[in-house]
Write a structure and sequence with these properties.
The complex is a heterotrimer of chains A (about 475), B (about 475) and C (about 100). Chain A is an alpha+beta fold and about 475 residues long. Chain A has 16 helices and 17 strands. Chain A has 3 domains: about 5-290, no CATH class; about 295-410, no CATH class; about 420-475, Arc Repressor Mutant, subunit A (Orthogonal Bundle), CATH 1.10.10.410. Chain A is about 40% helix and about 20% strand. In chain A, helix 1 packs across helix 4, helix 2 (about 170-185) packs antiparallel against helix 3 (about 220-240) and helix 13 crosses helix 16. Chain B has about 475 residues and is α/β, with parallel strands linked by helices. Chain B has a domain at about 5-240 and about 455-465: Amidase signature (AS) domain (Amidase signature (AS) enzymes, Alpha-Beta Complex). Chain B is about 35% helix and about 10% strand. An 11-stranded mixed sheet of chain B has the order 1-3-2-4-6-5-10-11-9-7-8, with helices on both faces. With about 100 residues, chain C is mostly helical. Chain C has a domain at about 10-45. Chain C contains 3 helices and 2 strands. Chain C starts with 7 loop residues before the first helix and ends in a 7-residue tail after the last strand. The chains are: A alpha+beta (about 475), B alpha/beta (about 475), C mainly alpha (about 100). Chains B and C meet through helix 10, helix 11, helix 12 and helix 13 of B and helix 1, helix 2, helix 3 and strand 2 of C.
């Protein structure tokens, strides 16, 4: 069945120092409730908003990176809805119409799924304020008899990035979100590893069914889970001969299911209007150019550089740049070890990543310091350990051990002494006279001998030297 | 006594600057019983800044301008217990110049009304004639001055709310150019029309208070920094007007308010006597007609109701104000809808109609059209002001209305509304200058000039006050 | 746009839009006054606004604020006067009660 998925992603601009419309700190996490507030973000009567210049610059950066067209006139709209987390009874946002315009229109992000490239179109980008945070005294919305509100988050700058319904599978959504996250990380506008910094509303339609919106899912993992659940649910309904009506559902992150939203007497009418407190701001061309000049290398350019200059395979290059932390990590290890290319990248992507929770990617440098992995690479390069040993070392490094300690504790070090190895080869050849005779008919017999020798060295023998010795001996015999 | 004289006496060491607030509270309590002027009285003490521009001058503040730790109700039951945590910028500026805030004055609830009668705390009476309305919505500020309690006060003017009470109580009032006085701390009614302005018993005091409160404020994005510096007004408040100001002053006499079907012929005739005097002193007076003026109130109400429905959406009883329902054992919709029953009828009907105007399908029909009609009016007024120095109208073309006047049909106020709201809709400065006072028919003139040109209004005002008006003559500076 | 009829449903719709619960007497009064008010503001519909933009901000462009944090102790002390629970503001549940 044909699946169509569109996203409305909300990301906090976590690199800002202040909120979108007031000078309260943007660093609200971990503060005691309701201590990071002022009349503006509390919506106190008489207070007025003032636009954070840096927020506009961040939005310009993102729009440029997503190939989106920035509207020259920055205009703000009030979106009215009534919810206890919204102190003014409206959210200051942006809108396409009613005399105002969205921040930027159009654009795209290229994603890769199973090696296939695809372009996901962006519909629009808006800047808006985050509502307050609601906490349930019992921990659950259903059983709480009241709610608790913390305004520390109220007014934090958000970017709303809306896509066209271009994604056809949960895998594509994941690829899109990872790419988006990586771009935002490279732009240094958002650290999306922070709790609640990325939220999404997802529109899903399956087959001939109507569009279903799943609202307010937090975090990449839950977004993917919610989509998988919802797609499966809709397919199930359709296959049983049911119909999918247009509706809004909520993601229950505890039970990992989507639930129908409560039915309202009437649908919410947002009554958008231009915010008369915020006159138009004509974004100067110079400001856009200034931002453009400071645009860093973006994931796609970085992957190309890895391929062209480091000789990386396309696959590994794109996996690395899917996270800024990961790509940075690779470059650091390459720099420290003096070795670049698939050998290093492979160790990171196929081995190290297998032991690290994807949520912890941004902490990769703290889990295994790049100096440690660089040392492993150097040991490998000097043939002091084998690739097999290197692979076995990774989980120990993740546990916090140092490469030298591991080698010592495990009694690992590669045997490269020719005399020692020749003696063992002789022993093996003596023990297996049959094999020597077969060698003319069966070239694989050489591999067999090498294997036996390696076994005898406790896998510490240098396979290259062993192979040389074996070949010499066979020729001699 | 004029504040300017008082301040000069202090400067000369003739009197002590605490003199004006001595016994203030006792005097207020006596007068307040007659006119219902104050909602909340401050405790005026001697802890004001000495040797500043307004040191020791008692100043009344309209109760929709927030004052730190001093209750601010907007004359509404909804905010009956609201004690703000911050000062409006204008209040900050007054305090830093040594002015003494003596209390918060009565007004129409949330500034919605023309008669001062929609206050939750009961109507203010006109000191010239207690059976009549003092005009609204800055009714208490006007009465505080007219009754002699204070020399100056702050009002706010969204559609004539400073100027109508000034006209009806025989005092001076100025609605500044939109963007010339900070609205930070003014409880919003209709953001693009609201302006705080000075009211005073002397034109010199009016100019002094204006000089103190005016000017760009980083907290209000709609204020503008290209204006005549405040020092100019402060200096001129102690100076006589340009003696040649009337010579060849080009005055456009607006026809519509004079021939309006509801205009009072006696008021118009008496007003015209004064216009003849202006001519006698050298002014060139010509009649101009702008038919759109008669529809200005309708444009005004569409914008003001819509903005009001948005601005008053924040009053839920959660963070401030009174509540009839507590948070436990209810749900958000019920909590919100029932707490908002505390609004008075005038406010309710404006929110209800405003919400409707902004709702799906009606925005373009009413709101967008009203905004464009406003631009047209702006254009037509500015065409006149390109040829003339000022546009003149009566301050009111009817005598003060009785307190029980039924304004449920707003078209009954079209005669006064139309001459007042044009300045708000076009963002132009407008001054009301009293010409003569009597118990039933005070006469005044309104002058409207180009944006940012308050200086000419004060010069003409001073000239009229000194040489033309039949008020107890202002002493020459 | 078809003529607006002041039915009970329409009044209920307005109550919901504005989130103000009305008494029966107020509903009756609203119907009467809405007729008067709408008749009055309908004059706006007859104004020819061809060629006019909806914006007349008196200043050419707004200034933006620098991204420098300032903390506000007063706002905190204001909230601390409310009945807080472990620093949180208490609010009603969002899910409708039966």
């Amino acid at each position: 069945m044909n699946i169509k998925i569109g996203l409305e992603v909300h990301v906090q601009l976590t690199s800002l120092k202040t909120k979108l419309f007031c000078s309260c700190s943007a660093d609200y996490r971990g503060k005691p409730p309701n201590t990071n507030i002022c009349p503006v973000c509390l919506g106190m009567p008489g207070s007025l908003p003032r636009v954070n210049k840096e927020a506009i610059k961040s939005a310009i950066k993102v729009a440029l990176a997503l190939n989106s067209n920035i509207n020259q006139v920055l205009a703000w709209a009030r979106k009215h809805y009534f919810y206890p987390d919204l102190p003014k009874g409206y959210q200051i946002s942006q809108y396409d119409g009613k005399g105002v315009a969205t921040f930027a229109k159009g654009g795209y992000i290229n994603i890769r799924v199973n090696g296939k490239k695809k372009k996901i179109k962006i519909r629009r980008i808006n800047i808006e304020e985050d509502p307050a945070r609601i906490v349930y005294p019992t921990g659950d919305a259903e059983t709480s008899s009241y709610i608790l509100i913390d305004y520390n988050r109220s007014g934090i700058a958000l970017l709303e990035i809306v896509t066209e319904p271009d994604m056809n599978s949960p895998e594509e959504v994941r690829a899109f979100l990872e790419k988006l996250r990586s771009i935002l990380e490279h732009l240094e506008v958002s650290d999306l590893s922070l709790e609640g910094s990325m939220r999404a509303d997802v529109n899903i339609s399956v087959g001939d069914g109507e569009r279903v919106e799943v609202k307010n899912i937090s975090g990449l993992k839950d977004i993917e889970q919610a989509i998988r659940y919802e797609v499966a649910r809709q397919i199930d309904v359709l296959e049983k001969g049911g119909r999918i009506e247009r509706e809004t559902r909520h993601w229950d992150s505890t039970r990992k299911i989507t639930k129908p939203a409560r039915v309202k007497e009437y649908e919410e009418d947002y009554r958008y209007m231009p915010d008369p407190n915020l006159p138009f701001y004509i974004i100067p061309d110079e400001l856009i150019e200034e931002v453009r000049k400071t645009l860093p290398e973006l994931p796609e350019e970085r992957a190309a550089r890895f391929i062209n200059q480091h000789g990386l395979s396309e696959y590994l290059a794109h996996v690395l740049v899917s996270s800024k932390a990961l790509a940075d990590y690779y470059e650091k290890v390459a720099e420290l070890s003096g070795v670049k290319g698939d050998k290093v990248a492979g160790l990171i992507v196929t081995d190290l990543l297998g032991w690290i929770d994807s949520e912890d990617l941004s902490n990769i440098s703290r889990i295994v310091p790049p100096e440690d992995l660089a040392e492993v690479v150097k040991l490998l390069e000097k043939n002091e350990i084998t690739i097999k040993m290197a692979k076995e070392m990774i989980p120990l490094l993740v546990r916090g051990e140092k490469p030298r300690q591991i080698i010592e504790r495990m009694g690992w070090s590669v045997i490269r002494n020719r005399a020692v190895l020749e003696k063992i080869v002789d022993d093996v050849l003596k023990e297996n006279p049959q094999v020597l005779k077969d060698i003319e008919r069966n070239p694989r017999a050489v591999q067999f001998i090498i294997g036996k020798v390696l076994e005898k060295t406790g896998k510490k023998g240098d396979p290259k030297i062993i192979a040389e010795i074996v070949r010499e001996k066979i020729r001699l015999s | 006594m004029r504040a300017v004289d008082f301040l000069l006496s202090i400067k000369r060491g003739e009197i002590d600057d605490v003199k004006l607030i001595e016994g203030f509270r006792e005097r207020v309590i006596a007068e307040d019983e007659k006119y219902n002027i104050f909602i909340t009285l401050a405790e005026p003490d001697e802890a004001f800044h000495r040797k500043r521009l307004l040191s020791g001058v008692p100043i009344a503040v309209k109760d929709n301008i927030v004052t730190k730790n001093l209750r601010t109700t907007c004359a509404s039951q909804v905010l009956e217990n609201f004690v703000p945590s911050y000062d409006a910028t204008v209040v900050e500026r007054i305090k830093s110049e040594g002015g003494v805030i003596v209390g918060k004055t009565n007004m129409d609830e949330f500034a919605m009304g023309a008669l001062g009668t929609t206050s939750y705390f009961g109507p203010t009476r006109n000191p010239l004639n207690p059976s009549l309305s003092p005009g609204g919505s800055s009714s208490g500020s006007a009465a505080a001055i007219s009754s002699g309690l204070v020399p100056m006060a702050l009002g706010s003017d969204t559609g004539g709310s400073i100027r109508l009470p000034a006209a009806w109580t025989g005092i001076y009032g100025l609605k500044p150019t939109y963007g010339l006085v900070s609205r930070y701390g003014l409880v919003s009614y209709s953001d693009s029309l609201d302006q705080i302005g000075p009211m005073a018993s002397s034109i010199f005091d009016l100019e002094l208070l204006f000089g103190v409160i005016m000017g760009w404020d980083e907290k209000d994005p709609t204020t503008y920094d290209k204006h005549v510096p405040s020092e100019v007004f402060i200096k001129r408040a102690f100076m006589n007007p340009d003696p040649h100001i009337m010579r060849n002053l080009r005055v456009a006499l607006l026809k519509e308010p004079l021939v309006h079907e509801d205009a009072d012929q006696k008021v118009v005739d008496r007003f015209m006597d004064y216009v003849s005097e202006l001519e006698a002193y050298g002014a060139v007076v010509e009649e101009v007609s702008i038919p759109l003026v008669n529809k200005a109130p309708q444009i005004y109400y569409v914008i003001a109701f819509s903005d009001a429905s948005s601005n008053l959406a924040r009053y839920s009883g959660l963070l401030y104000g009174k509540r009839v329902v507590d948070v436990i054992d209810t749900d958000w919709d019920e909590y919100y809808m029932r707490n908002r029953k505390l609004f008075g009828w005038e406010v309710k009907r404006r929110i209800l109609l405003g919400s409707f105007i902004l709702s799906a399908g009606y925005y373009e029909m009413y709101y967008d059209r009203a905004l464009r009609a406003r631009a047209k009016l702006y254009d037509e007024l500015n065409k006149v002001l390109a040829k003339y120095d000022v546009i003149a109208t009566p301050g009111s073309n009817i005598p003060p209305l009785p307190l029980d006047f039924d304004a449920s049909d707003l078209s009954r106020l079209n005669a006064i509304d139309s001459l007042l709201v044009i300045a708000n809709l076009a963002g132009l400065p407008a001054i009301v200058i009293p010409l003569e006072v009597s118990t039933n028919t005070p006469i005044s003139i309104q002058l409207i000039s180009q944006k940012w040109s308050e200086d000419i209004l004060f010069e003409i005002g001073k000239y009229i006050a000194l040489y033309i008006s039949k008020l107890e003559r202002e002493l020459e500076a | 746009m078809k003529k607006i009829e002041f039915t009970d449903d329409f009044i209920k719709h307005l109550e919901w839009l504005a989130r103000i619960e009305l008494e029966d007497s107020e509903k009756k009064r609203l119907k009467e006054e809405l007729a008067l008010l709408l008749r009055y503001i309908d004059d706006v519909l007859s104004i020819d606004v061809e060629g006019y933009s909806p914006y007349i901000y008196p200043k050419p462009s707004m200034e933006l604020r620098e991204d420098i944090p300032v903390s506000d102790e007063d706002a905190y002390s204001y909230l601390s006067r409310l009945a807080l629970e472990e620093g949180f503001v208490k609010g009603p549940v969002v899910i409708k009660k039966k």
